[in-house]
Amino acid sequence: MDQQKSGQQKNDARPILIVDDEPEILVAVDTTLRMAGFDNIITVSDSRDVIRLMERQIPRLILLDLNMPHINGGRLLQIIRKTWPRIPVIVLTGAIDVDTAVRCMKIGALDYVVKPVEEARLLAAVNLALDYENLTADKKGIPKDLFSQIKNPEAFRHIITQDKKMHSIFHYVEAIGPSSQPVLIFGETGVGKELICQSIHSLSRRKGKLVKVNVAGLDDNVFSDTLFGHVAGAFTGADKARPGLIEQAVAGTLFLDEIGDLALSSQVKLLRLLQEGEYLPLGSDRTRKSDVRILASTNLDLWALEKKGKFRKDLIYRLSTHTLTLPPLRERLLDLPLLMDRFACKAATELDKPIPDIPKNLIELMEAYPFKGNIRELKSMIHDAISRYKRGRFSPDLFKGLAPNSSLNPKGETLLDLPTLKEASRELVEKALKQTGGNQSAAAKILGISQQALSKRIKKLKSGEN
Questions:
Q1: How far is CA 401 from the centre of its chain?
Q2: Which of 122, 128, 129, 304 could cysteine-pair with 88, CB 3.0–4.6 Å?
């Protein structure tokens, strides 16, 4: 490796992550790398902290011990491979045998180093891994990960996805991030609208905070007091002045969730804030200026509400300088295994349970589930299942209303004489295809799933599989 290349690798902004439950190994590996010029290093002794850490900051290389309590290195490697497939992983192992090395390679490790660690062997493995990372980045058409074309990937690391639609949204968010204009975000309940707001605020580089408020159900007085604050004596009990959320978000961003439920009287006040950058605290006759940026989200059709006289047309125009729509989970089925793995890992860690392997048949059942609550519903389902999981097979029976032979629906109510999931699936598919004259694309839209998922289901039904 030439000197310039080595310098570029050692000065990379992303850290090298070392995971081992033995403190002396952490110290030895950390010291060896630092003496070789690598100064951006993070050490972790508890394997349960790894995924949480990676959600905040993606490492460029991971050195991973295989034998650890809580989450063993093999299982952790599987999770990392599914979510971050391009990050090179070097396994640290105390077992000196070929079988261990082969097993490591099969589950996704790039290389392995035997403990106690030899300095020359460790540095050779690390440099090889970093060479591999650069090589995969340079190959045309093979990105290092989903974010390879994103200029500010850290702004999206909290969003779990490999979906192309989401990738396009990330590009759009990067473009509008520095703008001072409002953004209106559409999407069903639970699709992650708040997460996108975090990304927009991060990219805005505004000095103030991101302040969030759900405006659904707020009457006009509560809305005004919450956003604009009040002066002393504004109403009974107002003994002293109280700043509103706008003042808390000065030089920052204000996120108004469920904007479609905002009362008409409150919409007038919000419109003034957007048009003039002015607002009136309750009880005050002096307007105040604000430079806060407004982000708003809704799961409702604002134009339909406007036709019914429930939402102001001029407010829609003011809010929608920039707009985006987040896809529902049923249109992001490639993300299902990633999300299930992440939520299972997180729930198991919180509940001190073993982390299960997600079986293929469970993922297939999930693909056919409607997920009206989207990612939020999936997370709740996984957490509930993990709370009742002990060990062994992670069965669909742990999911209320999902297993073919279950007698409970998602609300926990007893149901009788229901067809099996296979029977119901066959009937729905046949009816949809009949209505569309065999057009799979149109049938998939009727069923609320992707054409890919429908095609997969048809093949299984024809072969007699569940």
A1: 25
A2: 129
| Lowest-confidence segment of 103-107, 206-210, 229-233, 405-409 by average pLDDT | 405-409
Q: Which tops the pLDDT comparison, 193 or 424? A: 193
- What are the tokens at 36? 């070789």
The answer to whether residue 424 scores a pLDDT higher than 70 is: yes
C-alpha–C-alpha distance, residues 274 and 294, integer Å: 8
pTM for the whole thing? Answer: 0.65
Distance CA 454, CA 165 (A): 19
Residue holding tokens 């419109």?
A: 271
Q: Are 217 and 263 in contact (CB under 8 A)?
A: no
pLDDT, greater one: 56 or 342: 342
Look up residue 391 and give its amino acid.
R
Start-to-end CA distance of the chain, whole Å, equals 53
Q: What is the distance between the alpha carbons of residues 256 and 266, in angstroms, rounded to a whole number? A: 12
In three-state form (DSSP H/G/I as H, E/B as E, the rest C), the secondary structure along the chain is: CCHHHHHHHHCCCCCEEEECCCHHHHHHHHHHHHHCCCCCEEEECCHHHHHHHHHHCCCCEEEEECCCCCCCHHHHHHHHHHHCCCCCEEEEECCCCHHHHHHHHHCCCCEEEECCCCHHHHHHHHHHHHHHHHHHHHCCCCCCCCCCCCCCHHHHCCCCCCCHHHHHHHHHHHHHCCCCCCEEEECCCCCCHHHHHHHHHHHHCCCCCEEEEECCCCCHHHHHHHHHEECCCCCCCCCCCEECHHHHCCCCEEEEECHHHCCHHHHHHHHHHHHHCEECCECCCCCEECCCEEEEEECCCHHHHHHCCCCCHHHHHHHCCEEEECCCHHHCHHHHHHHHHHHHHHHHHHHCCCCCCCCHHHHHHHHCCCCCCHHHHHHHHHHHHHHHCCCCCCCHHHCCCCCCCCCECCCCCECCCCCCHHHHHHHHHHHHHHHCCCCHHHHHHHHCCCHHHHHHHHHHHHHCCC
Considering only CA atoms, give the Rg of the chain.
Answer: 26
Q: Can you tell me which residue has the tokens 């097993």?
A: 103
Is the N-terminal amide bond of 337 cis, ω within 30° of 0?
no
Q: What pLDDT score does 136 carry?
A: 53
Cβ proximity of 350 and 343 under 8 Å: no
Provide mean pLDDT across the span 361-380: 92
Mean of the per-residue pLDDT values for the chain?
84
Distance CA 132, CA 129 (A): 5
